[in-house]
Design brief:
The chain has five helices and two strands; from the N terminus they run H-H-E-E-H-H-H. Strand 1 and strand 2 form a beta hairpin. The protein has 110 residues and is mainly alpha-helical. Strands 1-2 form a two-stranded antiparallel sheet.
Length: 110
Amino acid sequence: MAEREEDSSIETPADERWLVIGGRRWRRTDPSLPDDLVKALKSHLGRGRSAVRTAQRGGDAAAVAAARVRVGLAKRGLGERGPYWWDEPEEERRRRAEDALRELDALDRG
């Protein structure tokens, strides 16, 4: 547990943790993730958001739920949902992101 405390002692300024849009606070993407991993996760996030809109317009509740699974996985991988990324060791954060990407890629094959 000492390692976790040591890792979380690295101060991340609040403005690097949160983004405020329209008075609402949103968690930022984990800045420690490699660019190629972020790019892949954001691609899934964009496709998921698009699929949610399309399914909602079509009134397809099952498709909305499936698309939201993709959005949720991508956001967890990016560190925007789930445990606060700044409280986790960097290795654990990267593993979480890689696991999320594997699950997302499996959805495409599934």
